[in-house]
Design a protein that fits this description.
heterodimer; A: alpha+beta; Beta Polymerase, domain 2; 3 domains; 5-stranded mixed β-sheet; 17% strand; globular; B: Rossmann fold
Chain lengths: 573, 143
């Protein structure tokens, strides 16, 4: 289906809409009233069909707006359904989560932050605000009180996760549960998972986020357009090139400017260096989880030259702060190019070695194949992104679907694997690292001369959507400007936001020993696989994280014995 | 120097606490363990439970949901212990100062329950691994 066919398909639902606006070449806005929103969304998701990206709740002056963003990947088009909720006193709208599980979290979030009521939502528990945040205080509303210590009011008693909820903390749990998180000894962020288990098998999974909620979208409204990239690069330290890139794509779309060619190439190179170090980081951690600490040490060792290069170019090992509206802040000096090429050779050699070690190792096959499978149907239903989707046979990649920066000029391919298990995701990441090396080599070769920056004086009123492919998947930013020097609304969606809920599809039915690696397989920004405390319902034995990691490693050792494979030796690496 | 402090200074075992950081300080903390920096040479080891720890490496500006958990972890850590505030956010909430969900910084939360806590600061966004090692060395020699 090409763009014209998509447009004529959208005409079919015209009687339910107020208007159809085309704001840019690839941006279609469908305007409708709140009562028609559910029907329009159902049509877009099931009949067209489009991929759900995220929804944005906005407190406008006279009404609430809910924007549902969809992507049509074959043409890179973003279709946005803009609905108006006119009743400011009791804002409510029909939920789309019953047929679109990917929208479940964002509707809960909008309820927490804006107080919009979603009718028929299957699970309206608190998601993003802390347990003791009072009911009826909605921080994203324009009339919200100025941030201070804590808003007045009684702490909420609304249930969150069964074993963590203030309302139900004293209730005896009916089934044995495994509490995962919120703190874990190895690294990364907080998140709480509650696994319901029957013996060794996981039968249900529940999640609690909020530990890391910093209110970035609200802070962004108080910063100037040029300051926001520095903020959004701190959404996630490992995606600190992708978030600013998606944001500037959105702002440049509003302003109607195209940055100079050299800036586009520099952006590409930084983004790909970031992808290499992020994928290497993941390979190392995945090795650690299944008991191959050698892989952990080697992968992280060969990640270091990438960080050194990034430091050389941008001045910081992480949080590069290099992207700005209209260009870049730091150029790639010509004298650095030979060193980059030399380091790339080393990285390529070592990644090939790691890929070979993974593809040839019978134990890794036995340990990862058929584990944590996310089927293609589930991948579409949960609207997952990035290597998680590509590992399930959904070959979407923003770099190819809607080329930004310099990707359109370069020759590379989208890696995808049909199986959907952890092994497929590992293969996708390893092969992508090699593609990234290829992209950087070409970009350095073609690097045009010229300025890296242009002056963007003002951002006119308007709205724009920007996308970029982060190492974990598509980052999506929606920015609205009223012609002033700050965004009036800025919505950021990180890829983990859609990848993490897919645990419900991939973890259930797995052994507990496989859960650590299954949770880690989507490379969640808050991979909370540590500090597990297992309460076994029959014997009341409490295991901790160490015991679970041991379980996972014992399984590897057992398989190793059964297969009779040789030990992984240092000289193989 | 009491024997408790004397023994604290040898082979510091650390527990890593993320209270709402952006992951950058966290990956740099893990980086300390990998071949390039390898702090295990000095007996510095990341442990899985605060009950085994001599020091807490705290990152992030403490969100409302994380604050009670941070207090609980501090209570569980055997005293005397050193609290390292790693990164600009942990030191002073950094770029997230105006966020509605931030209740930190770390020293404020810790001092609410223990006014005499030993707190060391390693600023930076994120601090380089070298800076973290230097921070640990300086804090230990100041004890």
């Amino acid at each position: 289906m090409n763009q014209q066919q998509l447009n004529s398909k959208l005409e079919e639902i015209k009687d339910k809409l107020i208007d159809i606006e085309q704001k840019a070449e690839n941006r279609i806005f469908l305007l409708c009233e709140a009562e028609n929103a559910c029907a329009v969304n159902k049509f877009l998701f099931e009949d067209v069909p489009l991929r759900f990206v995220i929804a944005t709740g906005i407190d406008s002056d006279d009404c609430f707006e809910v924007l549902y963003h969809y992507a049509y990947d074959p043409t890179g088009c973003v279709v946005t359904v803009k609905t108006f909720i006119r009743d400011r006193q009791n804002p409510s709208i029909e939920s789309i989560a019953p047929f679109l599980p990917a929208a479940e979290w964002i509707e809960r979030e909008m309820h927490d932050l804006l107080g919009i009521d979603f009718k028929n939502h299957p699970d309206m528990r608190r998601l993003i605000l802390s347990d003791d945040w009072p009911e009826g205080v909605y921080p994203m509303r324009k009339d919200a009180p100025k941030p201070k210590e804590r808003p007045d009011g009684q702490p909420s008693r609304r249930p969150t996760v069964q074993s963590q909820s203030p309302a139900q903390r004293t209730v005896r749990l009916s089934k044995p549960i495994v509490a995962v998180g919120p703190f874990h000894p190895l690294q990364e962020e907080m998140e709480f998972f509650q696994l319901t288990v029957d013996g060794e098998i996981v039968t249900d999974i529940d999640m609690r986020i909020s530990y890391n909620h910093r209110g970035i979208e609200k802070i962004s409204e108080s910063l100037q357009f040029d300051q926001v990239p520095l903020l959004v690069s701190r959404i996630c330290g490992i995606c600190s090139a992708s978030h600013p890139l998606a944001y500037v794509n959105a702002v440049e779309e509003i302003a109607g400017v195209t940055p100079p060619d050299r800036a586009q190439y520099v952006r590409t190179i930084i983004a790909e260096l970031e992808r290499i170090h992020s994928h290497m980081l993941w390979v190392g951690l995945a090795g650690h989880f299944i008991g191959y600490d050698t892989v952990f040490m080697w992968a992280w060792r060969y990640r270091e030259p990438v960080l050194d290069l990034l430091e050389e170019i941008t001045g910081n090992r992480n949080n590069y702060g290099n992207v700005k509206v209209g260009g870049c802040r730091e150029d790639i000096p010509d004298e650095l190019i030979p060193r980059i090429l030399k380091d790339l050779d080393l990285i390529e050699k070592k990644t090939e070695m790691l890929t070979k070690a993974v593809l040839d190792d019978p134990i890794i096959h036995a340990r990862l194949k058929g584990v944590g499978t996310l089927t293609k149907e589930d991948a579409i239903k949960y609207a997952v992104a990035g290597p998680t989707a590509r590992g399930s046979g959904v070959a979407i990649d923003v770099r190819a679907d809607e080329p930004y920066a310099a990707y359109a000029d370069l020759d590379w391919k989208v890696i995808s694997q049909p199986e959907g298990d952890v092994f497929a995701k590992a293969v996708v990441r390893l092969l992508e690292t090699l593609e990234s090396v290829k992209i950087i080599r070409q970009a350095l070769k073609k690097l045009p001369k010229g300025p890296i920056d242009m002056e963007v004086k003002e951002i006119p009123p308007g709205e724009g959507c920007g996308r970029a492919e982060a190492p974990r998947g598509e980052t999506f930013h929606y920015v609205r400007s009223d012609g002033g020097n700050r965004p009036t609304r800025h919505k950021a969606r990180a890829p983990s936001y859609v990848n993490v809920p897919s645990f419900r599809a991939s973890c259930i039915g797995q052994h507990i020993a496989d859960v650590t690696i299954t949770l880690a397989a989507v490379d969640p920004c808050y991979s909370c696989t540590e500090r597990l405390a297992v309460v076994d319902g029959h014997s009341n034995i409490v295991h901790d994280y160490e015991a679970l990691l041991k379980l996972s490693r014992e399984k590897t050792a057992r398989l190793k014995k059964e297969i009779g494979a040789p030990e992984l030796k240092m000289e193989d690496l | 120097m009491s024997w408790k402090i004397w023994s604290l200074k040898k082979s510091v075992w650390v527990f890593h606490v993320n209270t709402g950081a952006c992951n950058n300080c966290d990956i740099e903390v893990v980086d300390l363990l990998t071949p390039k920096f390898d702090v295990e040479r000095f007996g510095i080891k990341l442990v899985g439970s605060p009950r085994h720890a001599d020091a807490l490496l705290v990152t992030g500006g403490v969100t409302a949901q994380a604050a009670p958990r941070l207090r609980e972890i501090y209570r569980q850590t055997p005293k005397p212990c050193i609290v390292f505030c790693i990164g600009a956010c942990a030191c002073d909430k950094g770029i997230f100062t105006t966020g509605y969900h931030m209740v930190g910084p770390v020293d404020k939360i810790i001092k609410e329950i223990d006014p005499n806590a030993i707190i060391a600061y390693v600023p930076g966004c994120p601090p380089k691994p070298e800076a973290m090692i230097s921070g640990v060395v300086k804090a230990l020699s100041a004890l």
